[in-house]
Amino acid sequence: MLPSLNWRPASLLTITLACGFVTSSRANPIAHSSHNIIESVPDLPNLDEWIADEADIALDALLENIHPPDTLPGVVVASPSRKDPDYFYHWTRDAALVLSVAQMVYEHGVDNGGAKDTMLENILWNYARFEQHLQTVPNPSSNIAEPKWNVDGTAYTLPWGRPQNDGPALRAQTLTLFAQSHLRKHQNTSLITSLLYDSRFPSSSLIKNNLEFTSHNWQEDTVDLWEEIRGTHFYTLMVQHSSLVHGSRFAEEMGDIGAARWYAAQSRKIASKLEEHWSPEHRILQSTLSRTGGIGYKSSNLDVSILLASLHTDPPSLFDHPRHPFMPHPHFLHTPYPPWSDEVLSTAMKLDHVMSSLYPINNITNVNDLPIANAIGRYPEDRYDGIGTSSLGNPWFLTTLAYAEVLYRTAVEWSHQNWIPVTDVTLDLLKWIGAFHPNSTNPHSHTAEIGKYAISRVPVRRAHSPVLFDWIIKHLGKKADAYFRRVQLHALGRESGKMAEQINRVDGKMQGARSLTWSHAAFVTAVVARDKFLGSLEGEVGEGMGRYTLGDQRRFASLKLQLLKKR
Ligand code: NOJ
Ligand code: NOJ
């Protein structure tokens, strides 16, 4: 099934060679001094205002890539680009992640069941019907884990990294959340039972079929989300776990009690399997274990997919309260490794550190005295330049945005729980975000106070140290904003703000598939996390954090209106 290391269609090889800008940037990376970027973007406009404008662009781009001309209803193209590279296909993973943004807005509602809510609902049903159709199409994976489809609903039959078992899990998860939202709004089970969940076994209904596949096949090795390595992957297991946790709850709602127990039992087994990915020696969650094929040069096993896993297992919601009430046993949580866990944060810091010297553009650390965080790529050894793999990898928009989202979500979680854990990892985190300078000599500073916590190891409680607590939370927000500013630096004034897949590591220009749908979905979810973060500051306005502190409803209303005003 896995013929060679090169799974790209042969034509891409020639495209790589034809791709002049890649060659020239590689020839002399230093000659392209990072000053180029600063000169071309002398002034970065206010971040809040830019984010509001860019959210508008992102939402439009996202909707444009759903069922564009020449495609069937329900198709989500990965990008409108049909050449260099050809991304005009329906990828199961990209589609599920993009549709989870549409589901987020649908769940919250926009106009009380009016035209806009109906439009969103139609997008989601069309997606469901298209996916249902794909389940019946013979394909090279011979199962529902085929990763990529033609936009006319036929199978893509050229060599590819297949199967990709994260697909059925993500598809099930997005549709489960949609089905639950739909039932809450319409109380009409017949629509749901006919297409999405019929409680029969074997089942031809979409969610159940995908939960059955996931619960029976999670032990199989599979190709990873980057479509390059076969083995056991943290990302795949994480989304399989969360889809079964969400699915188990939904099965119970649908009266399918035996299935609910089976999905929950399998999710618990996956949770313990996931623990094997932690390397105590390197203090990272390793992306792949038991590699059986595919590329062999990914020696660090350090991959941004760990952060993506922590985000994609807890899909965004426009509500302030958690989607599911408190669950007593950690194995019932939809994610055993949330963004604020020591394991995810430790991995994030290690990867950021490697990336900081890997990409020349990361020499830029501030513009106009405002901090710019590192541009982040998939993993250090990456060779995929957006067209082929005979070059060097680059930072990506969606992976840089993942850092912002992880940090905002961490700040919100700590803010809600009113305490901050003091561990080796969180102490490193405080140094990394500039809140803790262990060598400072000022005995009255916040950093001296953190020094005392570093010795006692008791948590920083808001009730006990309110000023220090806020200082830390705001530093998390500032670091997260610095990742947004990095995205701003490379998106502003280029391609009308539509984010491609990659950012050239040397000249900072966009590279690879233009207007990548997933880049825009990642932007929206990071903005939602930022909105919640700003809401959690409770009216206290940090530097450069002013514009959105109007109260949740108005902020979310602006996001929703942005989503819908053009259609
Ligand atoms: C295209 C894939 O989409 C990309 O992720 C991968 O790096 C290359 N092919 C090489 O396999
Ligand atoms: C390449 C990425 O590696 C993969 O994750 C994605 O699904 C495809 N591009 C399509 O965007």
UniProtKB/TrEMBL annotation:
E.C. number: 3.2.1.3
Family stated for the protein in its record: Belongs to the glycosyl hydrolase 15 family.
Protein name per Swiss-Prot or TrEMBL: glucan 1,4-alpha-glucosidase
Pfam short name (any one): Glyco_hydro_15
Organism of provenance: Rhizophlyctis rosea
UniProt record, GO biological process: polysaccharide catabolic process
Alphabetical keyword list: Carbohydrate metabolism, Glycosidase, Hydrolase, Polysaccharide degradation, Signal
GO cellular component, one term: fungal-type vacuole
Domain of life: Eukaryota
